[in-house]
Amino acid sequence: MKELKERILIDGEILGDDVLKVDRFLNHQIDPQLMQAIGNEFATRFKAEPITKIVTIESSGIAPAVFAGLKLNVPVVFARKHKSVTLGDNLYCASVYSFTKGVTNNIVVAKNFIEANDHILLIDDFLANGEAAMGLMEICYQAGASIAGIGIVIEKSFQPGREKIEKTGIQVESLARIKAFENGTVTFVNGEEK
Ligand code: G4P
Ligand code: NA
Ligand code: NA
């Protein structure tokens, strides 16, 4: 997605060897116009699928997921990382290992928000090691739901997440695929100009 990649080149900051800071439009301050364009692009890429629901994970998956839900006219559910007092006990739960933090966290979704006849589009902001995406898939399968695909805003293609998901046979659509951080600049995977 040209508009997103241009924005990454303008506003993205590379931190250390493998982290892209995008706090100006996605992870802290949010650009609603760009998020809407992203949501529309996800809707286009998965238009062949009879999607009934979008599932994402708090917090940074929510903005792009809501705009995709608006375009597809389906509800959006976000997995929670922390138990809230209102959540109750009737939960689907998956553990997600964080490579950056070296800890395993549980993510949860209340059972009444995913049903066996749902056909779910998963959305997240980043695809790095794929742990969060695999956790979301696990929750969908616990519910007996089917998965239409996974929509990712920014994929770091030099990390193993995409390969991990592709092995499961699930379609992955990433709107910006980063090949590398070279000499302080972001380079994208070739043939992705759409
Ligand atoms: P991983 O092993 O699957 O990569 O997960 P990791 O624990 O490393 O990631 C921790 C958080 O950092 C996740 O967001 C993930 O989306 C995000 N992340 C991974 N790589 C990058 C990157 O290069 N840039 C940015 N900006 N984020 C990255 P989170 O903790 O769930 O935070 P949030 O969704 O509440 O913002
Ligand atoms: Na994040
Ligand atoms: Na995230």
Sum this structure up briefly.
By secondary structure, the protein is an alpha/beta fold.
3D architecture notes:
Belongs to the purine/pyrimidine phosphoribosyltransferase family. Xpt subfamily. Keywords: Cytoplasm, Glycosyltransferase, Purine salvage, Transferase. One of its GO terms (biological process) is purine ribonucleoside salvage. It is found in: Cytoplasm. InterPro entries: PRTase-like, PRTase_dom, Pur/Pyrimidine_PRTase, Xanthine_PRibTrfase. The chain is of the alpha/beta class and 194 residues long. It has one domain (2-188): Rossmann fold (3-Layer(aba) Sandwich). Helix content is 27%, strand content 34%. The chain has five helices and ten strands, in the order αββαβαββββαβαββ. The protein has helices at 2-11, 32-45, 62-72, 131-142, 161-166, and strands spanning 13-15, 19-21, 53-57, 76-79, 91-98, 103-110, 119-127, 146-156, 172-182, 185-188. The strands form three sheets. It has a six-stranded mixed beta sheet, sandwiched between helices. Strands 1-2 form a two-stranded antiparallel sheet. A two-stranded antiparallel sheet has the order 5-6. Helix 2 (32-45) packs across helix 3 (62-72). The protein is globular and about 50 Å long. The termini are close together. The mean pLDDT is 95. The structure holds guanosine-5',3'-tetraphosphate and sodium ion (NA) (2 copies).
